[in-house]
């Protein structure tokens, strides 16, 4: 078909759809077309039709046109018509609008315009038509499009385009708002060049624009010029993308102006769109403030065997000292989160292991076979003499073997005994050649475990009448105390006496918890800083509040309000106190105890990790968490004590150095609060507390370097109930190492030894010299006949591990429930014991837990990335867990199931990650023919069953991908190297459910 203007127009006019389609798909070249369009009428017709075509269709039409040289054709038409001495604007205007429309989608339009000579032309057209609103607007729209390219923006700047446009922006008026808006956007577009920003700064345009904003904002009482105001904000946004622009904006009072106008805008719903943009702008401009610390490194340092401590002083590769990089970060949290989610899913696909050899080949064992024999001791049920035990009716165990240690000895103590071994520092070396601690920084806990810190003790005296009762009780129970002290073996354990008094007076009945048992366990716990105080909730215990809790509904605009409060810190100083009230590294900080004084903080106890507290305003505190030991990062978990509060006052707390990019705190999660007063009143609950909770990116940066590492603020408001109280705040229900030790003892005491075979052993000592407990649970054989003993010795093993990540305390509560269930008289538990042998390592990272760490072990590494080649000295628990699994392999008892319990900070529900070659290949889009691969689908059955029976379980959240980045995790190594088909990570939420019967609720974690 011949294409001439005439038949083109004719066909379109008669609605020839075939031709329209043809135009858009054919090799038809636009430039030829325009050359053919000689007369004005034809050109105009063509332009109108083109405009219609491009307006009606999707962007694909424009893309197609660009690919066929449409931009060049339009630019040529522009130059041809625009260079005439008196251009015909009836033709030129439609061309300009089309250039703007097409150019908007053409990334190379600037360059094309430069080549066609359209850049100078458009500036001349603008200059000559300043009095003609429509013409000027069209030129401005085209300039906006050209200036999207930095080099073209620069060229326009060098041709004084910026000045022309700047002087085109008028004082407040109600006339020609469209043109004004276009000119401001064009000015903003020119600011994509840093040269233009510098020139705008030096010519005083920044302050000029600020004055214009102020004027337009105050005079536009009818809100008809919101678009103009938004366009000005767009200019400010572009200006503040560069350091020089940002500095000028701030020094010219930009933040004050926006803060002031935002306060006004907040009063009027029509101005809503200005509020969000202004707040984001202010956030970008707040000066990047280093955390008020001497160093990013943890306040706790642990000298590692064979390593110089200063290894950790070396900055990581992305650390640069001092200077803050001019970043182009986008502070909009939602956008940030979207981007984050995108990278997550993108990474996910790139991250999948697609190398069939790596997926299917089993690597050679990481150690010689001879080293495995030592683990035979961890299968005591195989060697146990049930014949003898079945004859004994008493609970006295005769199983204390020579290499066994503390746990074993404790197990052989008669029930209810409070007797303790002497206080000599115990260093457990269960095996010759196993790593013991070097002369470590870990100190033995002194016996002052129930510290007489006034806070805690004060709480018992002012409970009104109870104070008198307490003293009376204390007298009458003196004999009792003496006896108990005697039992303690040291006779001077004053604080234990106080604890007993408290128990006598207030009573405490918490399942599987005894304060004295806890105390006894805690005395042996070794922390890096040498903690000598126990947190009250840990020693006293806690029970879940009854019933399910609804999630905290999020009020609208909390974040906005909090961010504005933070911005105000930079503007008004009258109410700013900025006084350090707590510093882990400066114990000499003293404040008078009289009220109203600042809150008092404390965190030198197991799992505690508050490093510094700064009173910002009268009732507002910035809190800084301690980094993981020997690290300068991994802050998220928190646990600390607070006292000296005034009741019924709202205190705002800001934890300012969180690291995760988003948090369940934005989706209904609340921090945990434990009140000692309430506990003594018979309500020993960790309760979800706090209002006005949100989590957002802040303006803090590390003390040194890593300027691109953003910090996030978790902010919440707490109103304390009592005057004289000591409260504890935590990320989640704390679960200490000492709690685990005490719990295992109580659990052992609670079982029926004729039915349940329960054995606590030590896997190995940790770096700091704590023992890593190892538990075996199975059913005792019903009789001593060979058949029953044989059945026991052939039961498949199920290996469960937990708490490799110390911040995931929820995983420990799930493990606690697992242990209690497995030892219970429930018929299912009984059946499970009769079918399987459970091998449980309930805390793979005791040192991390004890020292209030979030992610790592004392060696500064994430232990769940060490499974490929675990270092026997630096990662003993992983090394020996893996060794034990190798041992099971070597005696042909490869576990049926391996499951590592974790907590998930961003997702809801409970779910499993497993491993499957086929699913990984499918997901990655690999070309490998999976039909030929054989894979036992058994890895899916557990998830399917849980989906049927456990309402908290989310089948849809499970996946079975083998990721490269996770190749050294327990799940993947146990699957690949140990050949365990059902090898899982079980993730439990920190915060409730969004499905099934628990939807929008937080089932107390203990009940999951
Ligand atoms: Zn984890």
The separation of the N and C termini measures 74 Å
Largest sheet: 7 strands, mixed
Average pLDDT confidence is 80
Which ions, cofactors or small ligands are bound in this entry?
A: zinc ion
Strand order of the largest sheet: 17-18-20-19-21-23-22
Tally of DSSP β-strands: 24
Number of helices: 41
Helix content: 40-55%
- Tell me, briefly, the overall form: globular
Strand content: 5-15%
Structural class: alpha+beta
Low-confidence segments, given as residue ranges, are 11-16, 309-347, 393-494, 1002-1008
Cα-atom radius of gyration: 35 Å
Please give a structural write-up.
The structure is a single chain. The protein is an alpha+beta fold and 1008 residues long. It is 41% helix and 12% strand. It has 41 helices and 24 strands. A hairpin with a 5-residue loop joins β17 (756-765) and β18 (771-779). α6 (70-82) crosses α9 and α13 runs parallel beside α16 (226-239). The longest helix has 19 residues, at 333-351. The N and C termini lie far apart (74 Å). Zinc ion is lined by residues 805, 808, 902.
Set down the secondary structure blueprint.
Elements: H1 5-13, H2 17-25, H3 30-36, H4 40-56, H5 59-67, H6 70-82, H7 89-103, H8 109-116, H9 118-128, H10 133-146, H11 150-158, H12 161-166, H13 177-190, H14 194-202, H15 205-219, H16 226-239, H17 243-251, H18 254-265, H19 272-285, E1 289-290, H20 333-351, H21 356-360, H22 380-383, H23 386-391, H24 406-411, E2 443-444, H25 454-458, H26 466-476, H27 478-488, H28 494-506, H29 515-523, E3 526-527, H30 536-540, E4 549-550, H31 558-568, E5 579-583, E6 600-602, E7 610-617, E8 620-625, E9 639-643, E10 650-658, E11 672-675, H32 676-680, E12 686-688, E13 691-697, E14 700-701, E15 712-719, E16 726-730, H33 737-750, E17 756-765, E18 771-779, H34 786-793, E19 797-802, H35 809-822, H36 827-835, E20 837-841, H37 846-850, H38 876-890, E21 897-904, E22 910-913, H39 917-924, H40 941-949, H41 970-976, E23 982-989, E24 1001-1002
Parallel strand pairs: 1-14, 8-10, 19-20, 19-21, 21-23
Antiparallel strand pairs: 2-3, 4-24, 5-7, 6-9, 7-8, 9-16, 10-15, 11-12, 11-16, 13-15, 17-18, 18-20, 22-23
Helix pairs in contact: 1-4, 3-6, 4-7, 6-7, 6-8, 6-9, 7-10, 8-11, 9-10, 10-13, 13-16, 15-16, 16-19, 18-19, 19-31, 26-28, 29-33
The structure holds zinc ion.
The site of zinc ion has 3 residues, from loops.
């Amino acid at each position: 078909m011949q294409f001439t203007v005439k038949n083109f127009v004719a066909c379109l006019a008669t609605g020839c759809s075939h031709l329209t389609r043809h135009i858009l798909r054919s090799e038809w070249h636009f430039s030829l077309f325009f050359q053919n369009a000689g007369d004005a009428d034809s050109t105009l017709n063509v332009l109108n039709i083109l405009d219609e075509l491009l307006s009606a269709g999707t962007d694909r039409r424009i893309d197609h046109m660009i690919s066929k040289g449409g931009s060049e054709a339009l630019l040529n038409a522009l130059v041809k018509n625009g260079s005439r001495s008196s251009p015909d604007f009836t033709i030129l205007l439609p061309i300009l609008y089309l250039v703007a429309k097409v150019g908007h989608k053409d990334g190379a339009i600037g360059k094309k315009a430069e080549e066609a000579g359209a850049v100078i032309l458009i500036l001349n057209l603008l200059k000559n038509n300043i009095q003609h609103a429509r013409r000027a607007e069209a030129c401005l729209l085209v300039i906006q499009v050209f200036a999207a390219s930095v080099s073209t923006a620069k060229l326009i700047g060098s041709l004084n385009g910026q000045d022309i446009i700047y002087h085109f922006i008028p004082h407040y008026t109600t006339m020609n708002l469209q043109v004004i808006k276009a000119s401001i956007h064009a000015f903003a577009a020119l600011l994509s060049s840093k040269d233009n920003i510098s020139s705008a700064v030096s010519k005083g345009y920044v302050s000029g624009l600020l004055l214009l904003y102020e004027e337009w904002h105050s005079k536009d009482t009818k809100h008809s010029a919101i678009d103009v105001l938004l366009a000005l904000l767009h200019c400010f946004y572009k200006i503040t993308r560069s350091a020089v622009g940002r500095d000028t904006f701030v020094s010219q009072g930009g933040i004050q102006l926006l803060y002031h106008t935002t306060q006004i805008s907040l009063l009027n719903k029509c101005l809503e769109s200005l509020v969000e943009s202004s707040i984001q702008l202010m956030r970008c401009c707040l000066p990047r403030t280093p955390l008020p610390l001497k160093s990013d490194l943890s306040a706790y340092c642990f000298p590692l065997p064979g390593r110089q401590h200063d290894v950790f002083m070396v900055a990581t590769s992305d650390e640069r000292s001092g200077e803050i990089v001019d970043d182009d970060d986008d502070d909009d949290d939602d956008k940030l989160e979207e981007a984050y989610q995108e990278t997550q899913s993108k990474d996910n696909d790139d991250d999948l292991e697609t190398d069939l050899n790596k997926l299917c080949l089993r690597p050679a064992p990481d150690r010689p076979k001879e080293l495995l024999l030592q683990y035979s001791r961890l299968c005591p049920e195989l060697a146990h003499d049930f014949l003898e035990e079945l004859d004994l009716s008493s609970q006295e165990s005769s199983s204390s073997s020579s290499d066994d240690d503390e746990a074993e000895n404790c197990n052989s103590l008669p029930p209810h005994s409070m007797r303790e071994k002497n206080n000599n520092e115990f260093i457990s070396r269960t095996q010759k050649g196993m790593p013991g601690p070097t002369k470590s920084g870990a100190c033995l806990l002194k016996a002052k475990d129930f510290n007489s810190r006034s806070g805690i003790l004060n709480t018992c005296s002012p409970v009104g009448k109870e104070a008198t009762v307490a003293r009376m009780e204390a007298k009458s129970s003196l004999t009792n105390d003496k006896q108990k002290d005697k039992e303690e073996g040291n006779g001077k354990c004053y604080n234990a006496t106080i604890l007993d008094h408290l128990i006598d007076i207030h009573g405490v009945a918490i399942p599987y918890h005894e304060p004295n048992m806890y105390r006894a366990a805690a005395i042996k716990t070794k922390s890096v800083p040498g903690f000598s105080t126990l947190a009250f909730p840990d020693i006293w215990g806690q029970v879940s509040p009854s019933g399910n809790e609804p999630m905290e509904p999020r009020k609208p605009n909390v974040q906005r309000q909090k961010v504005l409060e933070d911005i105000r810190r930079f503007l008004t100083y009258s109410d700013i106190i900025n006084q350090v009230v707590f510093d882990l590294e400066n114990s000499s900080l003293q404040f008078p105890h009289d009220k109203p004084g600042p809150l008092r903080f404390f965190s030198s106890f197991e799992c505690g990790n508050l490093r510094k507290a700064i009173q910002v305003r009268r009732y507002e505190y910035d809190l800084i968490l301690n980094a993981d030991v020997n690290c300068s990062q991994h802050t998220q978990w928190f646990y600390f004590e607070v006292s000296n509060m005034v009741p019924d006052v709202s205190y705002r707390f800001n934890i300012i150095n969180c690291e995760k990019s988003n948090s369940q705190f934005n989706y209904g999660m609340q921090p945990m609060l434990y009140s000692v007063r309430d506990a003594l009143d018979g309500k020993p609950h960790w309760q979800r507390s706090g209002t006005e909770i949100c989590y957002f990116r802040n303006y803090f940066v590390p003390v040194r370097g890593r300027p691109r590492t953003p910090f996030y603020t978790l902010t919440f408001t707490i109103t304390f109930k009592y005057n004289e109280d000591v409260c504890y705040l935590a990320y989640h229900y704390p679960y200490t190492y000492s709690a685990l030790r005490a719990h295992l003892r109580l659990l052992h005491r609670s079982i029926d030894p004729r039915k349940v075979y329960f054995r606590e052993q030590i896997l190995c000592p940790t770096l700091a010299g704590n023992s890593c407990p190892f538990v075996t649970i199975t059913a005792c054989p019903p009789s001593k006949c060979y058949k029953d003993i044989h059945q026991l010795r052939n039961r498949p093993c199920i290996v469960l591990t937990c708490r490799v990540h110390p911040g995931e305390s929820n995983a420990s509560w799930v493990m606690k429930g697992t242990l209690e269930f497995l030892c219970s008289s429930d018929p299912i538990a009984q059946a499970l014991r009769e079918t399987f042998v459970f091998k449980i390592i309930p805390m793979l990272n005791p040192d991390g837990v004890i020292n209030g760490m979030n992610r790592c072990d004392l060696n500064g590494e994430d232990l769940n990335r060490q499974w490929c080649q675990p270092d026997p000295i630096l990662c003993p628990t992983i090394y020996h867990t893996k060794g034990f699994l190798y041992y099971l392999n070597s005696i042909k008892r490869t576990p049926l199931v391996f499951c590592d319990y974790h907590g998930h900070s961003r997702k809801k529900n409970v779910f499993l990650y497993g491993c499957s070659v086929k699913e990984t290949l499918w997901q990655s889009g690999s070309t490998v023919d999976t039909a030929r691969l054989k894979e036992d689908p058994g890895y899916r059955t557990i998830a399917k069953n849980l989906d049927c029976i456990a309402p908290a379980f989310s089948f849809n959240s499970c996946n079975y991908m083998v990721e490269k980045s996770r190749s050294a995790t327990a799940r993947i190594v146990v699957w690949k190297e140990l050949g365990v088909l059902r090898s899982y990570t079980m993730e439990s939420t920190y915060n409730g459910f969004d499905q099934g019967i628990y939807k929008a609720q937080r089932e107390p974690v203990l009940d999951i």
